[in-house]
Amino acid sequence: MQKRAQIAIVIRRRPLNIRGPYQHAAEMDVQKLLEMDMEEQAMKDDVCEQLKHPVIIAMKGHPCTGKSTIARVLADFLRYPLFAQDDLLDYAGDKSFEAICRIAATQLSLRIRVIIDSSLTSQAHRDRLVQLAESTRARLVIVECRPRDEYEWRQRLERRAIVDQSYKPSTWGDLQKMLGKYEDYDVGAVPKLILDTTKAFREGCLVSATLRIAFYRNPHVVELDQWVDLAMNRIKSNQSKKERGSYRHSHTFGLSNERKDTKATCNICSELVLGQAYDCDECEFILHKFCAELSDKVQRLPDECPSFLRAIPPVYTFPEKHVCDACIDAKKGFSDECLDCLFLTHLKCKLLPTILHHECHEHPLRFDINPLNSNFEFICRACGHFGRGIAYSCFRCHLHFHVSCLLLPRTLKHRTHRDPLTLNYFPPNDGSSEYYCNACEGERKPSHWIYYCADHEFAAHMSCMTPEVRPYDLQNDKRLDMLKM
């Protein structure tokens, strides 16, 4: 049997302490979600009955979009049996699809929920699944994988072709020809969840969204990012700030000019807040604008930022430690596994701004520090490398940056070019299919930042110009979520 290629999809894993009977836990989540949804109020009386229905989760996607990886994630989380069309090597095309449908029918007749992994590029296959769902009284939901980042999609295809030389299509050109032959059809009255597999996502959100839209009375086509935003907004709208602050969370700050609470004090300096301030949308946390931005030391940041905040740290080594109220009430000391202890310590040490205004992005970026065991993982928007634990983030746009990338010098001089080079956040894009670094002559991604000389059209990887950014292959070894496809 040939070894399958590895596809790098960044998935934020669930905390280890909630592992257990996956199917029952997931169904309880669905029940809670259904009860929150205003559209499903009429279903409250028979939620339990609805949860007894078998479910078909059908994957859809073109080659190397990550659908088989996502199918395995869902199967692992839910403990549903997975039937993959690729496993039936002795059958071709429609015969293999019909075979997995018949196998699935037996499981569904026993009220066992199933996952079917196929490309689902034919309307006839979609119609067969509808027939299967109707004959077994099952709920059918389609999870479609659409990699929005074409460059990353092409890289996956090329890596897989290297590992498995018999894999077809083996080139990007072959894939484009294949896509031209596929049907572009409407799934009709079948609920569908669309997932961008080139972006990081939380597997718990994927599971909840998949099962929830399967139980909608009316068919929906929803993107995962959209679903998560709507769900969070609904939860926030039903809670007061005091209620939202009763659980631990990452603070989301907005700048306000007027104070409703004239006795509010800054959580950094403990002084009365009178003028502009950043307050959390989730709770009553508040910071002076000056304290949050540390505008007096922004220019000195590249020299003063400690190394453990620049890269993936083995441990957090703050010069002093502060204990959050929750840990004090529990009679505990500082814990680097506590989100609030870490954030409070960051605020009091004043090593980095909590709110950073950077010319690379239109919105303010918020400093985000997480316990190293929380598996907070991301792909840096600047360099495209893996990151964990610490980031500057724009939650409105779902963007994350390494601290080290944001602290890079705006201009520098390098031995590979005679003129000064400027850090370019929006590299020129002439529509070419390939882009190269003029320093190392390796391929580069057009959306990643570069050091650039416009006069000579000299473009270079950031990692080639400064040791602050490590080359991709070294970072790639540190990925925690490399899932076999």
CATH class of the largest domain: Alpha Beta
Q: How many domains make up the coordinates?
A: 2
What is the terminal separation in angstroms?
A: 14 Å
Number of strands: 23
Helicity range: 25-40%
**CATH topology description of the largest domain:** Rossmann fold
The main pleated sheet reads as:
6 strands, parallel
Shape: globular
Structural class estimated from helices and strands: alpha/beta
Strand content: 15-25%
Level-2 CATH architecture of the largest domain: 3-Layer(aba) Sandwich
Task: Please give the order of strands in the largest beta sheet.
Answer: 4-5-3-6-7-9
By CATH, the superfamily of the largest domain comes out as P-loop containing nucleotide triphosphate hydrolases
Q: What's the mean pLDDT score?
A: 79
Q: With helices defined by DSSP (H or I, 4 residues minimum), what is the helix count?
A: 18
Residue runs with pLDDT of under 50 for 5 or more positions: 1-7, 13-49, 240-247, 472-485
Radius of gyration: 25 Å
Keywords: Metal-binding, Repeat, Zinc, Zinc-finger
InterPro entries: C1-like_sf, DC1, P-loop_NTPase, PKC_DAG/PE, Znf_PHD
Pfam families: AAA_33, C1_2
GO molecular function: zinc ion binding
List the helices and strands and how they pair.
Layout: E1 6-8, E2 11-12, H1 22-36, H2 47-51, E3 55-60, H3 67-78, E4 82-84, H4 94-109, E5 114-117, H5 123-136, E6 139-145, H6 150-163, H7 172-181, E7 192-195, E8 201-202, H8 203-214, E9 221-223, H9 224-237, H10 241-244, E10 253-256, E11 277-280, E12 286-288, H11 289-293, H12 301-304, H13 307-310, H14 325-329, H15 339-349, E13 355-356, E14 365-369, E15 377-379, E16 386-388, E17 390-394, E18 399-401, H16 403-406, E19 411-412, E20 421-424, E21 450-453, E22 458-461, H17 462-465, H18 472-476, E23 482-484
Parallel strand pairs: 2-8, 3-5, 3-6, 4-5, 6-7, 7-9
Antiparallel strand pairs: 1-23, 10-11, 11-12, 13-14, 14-17, 15-16, 17-18, 19-20, 20-21, 21-22
Helix pairs in contact: 1-8, 3-8, 4-5
